[in-house]
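Predict the holo structure. Ligand: beta-D-mannopyranose.
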Amino acid sequence: MSHTMFIDSWSFKATKDETWMPAQVPGCVHTDLLKQGRISDPFYGTNEHDLQWIDKIDWEYKSSFEASEAFMKEEIKELHFHGLDTYANVYLNDQLIVEADNMFRIWSVDVSDKLKDGKNELKIVFRSPIQEDLPKLKALGYRLPASNDQSVLGGLGEDQVSIFARKAPYHYGWDWGPRFVTSGIWRPVELVAWSGVLIRDVYIDQLHVTSEKAELIARIQLDSTITGKVVLQLTTEDMNWNLQAELQPGTHELSMPIVIDSPKLWWSRGLGDAHRYTFTAEAVAEQEGGSYKSLQQVKTGLRSVKLIRKRDAEGTGASFYFELNGIPVFAKGANHIPNDSFITEVTEERYRAEVLAAAEANMNMLRVWGGGIYEPNVFYDLCDEYGIMVWQDFMFACSMYPGDEHFLQNVKQEAIDNVKRLRNHPSIVLWCGNNEIDSAWAHYDEDAGWGWKKAFSAELREKLWSDYEKIFHELLPNVISELHASVEYWPSSPIVSLTGNKEQHGNPDTNEGDMHYWGVWHNVEPFENYQIKLGRFMSEYGFQSFPEYRTIRSFAEEDELDISSKVMKAHQKNGDGNRLIKQYMDLYMKQPTSFKSFLYLSQVLQADAMKMAIEAHRRKMPYCMGSLYWQMNDCWPVASWSGIDYYGRWKALHYYAKRSFAPLLISAQEEHDQLHVYIVSDRLAPSKGVLWLELFNTSGKLIRTTSKEAISPANSSQLSESISIAALLDGQRKEEVVLVITWIGEDGERVRYEHYFVKNQQLELKKPTIVVKEEHAEEGTVITLSSDVVAKQVVLIAEHEGMWSDNYFDLIPGKPHTVTFMSYDGSAQYRQAQAGSITVQSMFEHVVHSSAAIADA
Ligand code: BMA
């Protein structure tokens, strides 16, 4: 038997100070200082700017602990530091035992001969990551590009040092994140004691999995101090397997072939159950004089996953999609960033809130983006549980990195630690080398990329590229093929394919590989380009918005509620962001009537943009097989591309995404004088139904109705009908009508879609009278809304925290809409809840109307 104990009682201080203060472990200096009242809320106002001294000095943590008698009796004692951020020397009873220099690695030491009976002292000295890395920059003699490193804010001028540290890139600031370069013990410190045998690792390697049969190998790493026999037993559900082996002192890699007939497969959300098996491995070892036992459990799901990149018949491009258990899956979701600047603040509950929100919005994939962290096990457990596939980046983003031997070895060990930690999670369907570095550097294309190359001589360019290749084309793929061969490695996102020439680098016109399309937003192209710039797999595209009023008030006072105020600017990290929001708003929306209206409009604008993109991607199925918008979440309260803000509040985008990602989508697109109506379905069987087309004018009058039998196709997109717009409008003005398309399935399922022929700005809305029938049922608030005229983007604001089953929807006269209020209490599903008082608003009262329209209304 082994014993485990967590060392969690710590104090801390700045190395230069005398007084120790209580610390929280896992945690970091910033959160400890805040808890001690030594600094003010880092997210409030412009406080971020005043807290930049913290990363310039050294900090220390200490703990004294006693190991129990049971512990001391065991032969081997080990300390495992699951996460030290970042440059840390660890002393046990004044002896140096670890010199850490990588936040992402696990540091383990045998302390059998150092641990004492009674009190033991642990001390960890964290050297300033800035002071540590500045000399490296000097020694290098040139600056490596690091586009998002906010060194100026950090008081370092142009000296960007983030690339030297194997530490979460976003700590140094990003275009949605503040600069807080943390230090501390960010994952548990664990003391383990054992004798005889210890199972270190159980990996269920999935060789071949179908619904008939799962052929697996359980790869078990076992340490022994004895010479003798071991019986290894593996069980799951009502099955078990055995293996016997001879042990010598040392490390043993044992493999046990396993076959499970008719396995219950793990499916992504929407396709079936995300079934998981719990495997228990038990080792019983005997040697003269004693027997020893060790136990380990892992949970995994059985599935086969392939990334299919097959050349098109014409040879002009290649597919890019995930095949899960033989089924091509259209990936629907978003890019995930760390949920907090201070990552140890993210509880299991907060992780669940995010993954549950993804599930609720009909997503089936999240991309863990390479500028954050390898998330803790709990995040992947939740993705496993809810059937959310994970595209996992290694932690490299938008920068060039050093290539010295020490750096490479450090990265290699980081990859090994994390791949071994995560490879049993069925949700992980891809490992990706980095974010955007291949396309930013664009080695083979002089004119492409972000201009980085220009600063370097031909010789240095070759050197930097060869350093790049060592990590992303050799080291990382080698780790994956050795440790997690059943899942594909993709060198960079985006990339066309590894051609070694100009064709390699991702661009918005390619028909191969994955695509980041930032023409809309960074290049100020119109939203309509989302319908043209269509790749095989859209792994990034996005548009910013402001969080809601309550969230803004968490960091800004009333007199700062202006986007040009100091505080509001400090909470917009994309230099051009506020101007861009305004510019697009001027293009697509009428003018807002107030600051609150501006916030509302910014959310609707973002949601409209993402809706247009998602639907274009899905309509283009199977050419396009993935749509992951930028970005799912926030790490502090800020204006950003997120669909859910820092406090977990859903923006308009998240409600829109829920509709646009629904298993069955009706979507219409105008092309020249035609309106094309598509039915897109992720379901595996076709079904029959009727499509109703109703034309209403904005005053609420039904002008004409037609219907037609239709088929919802199996796992594909189908153009159901093309109609002449002129015939459809029948003389009505485009500014005054909406086409309501309703699918009514044979089974009674209803899916509705509204098509407007002009943008929000030109739409002539009438003042709605929205009637709200409120039922404060005991279980929670249920309301039914109806309107006398067409009411656009109706938003319900509840007094209490929670989310609505639907929000930011359009009301069509004669079609009442019922929604329920839900709250999240940390459990597996939302619960119906009381909303408290409710405010109902719509587009009409948030915008300035032309005087004619007002007179009309
Ligand atoms: C993509 C991401 C991030 C960035 C976002 C918005 O390039 O990979 O680096 O935050 O765009 O600019």
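The pocket of beta-D-mannopyranose is lined by residues 174-176, 371, 397-398, 435-436, 540, 630 (CB under 6 Å). Residues 765-857 form a domain with the Immunoglobulin-like fold (CATH 2.60.40.10).
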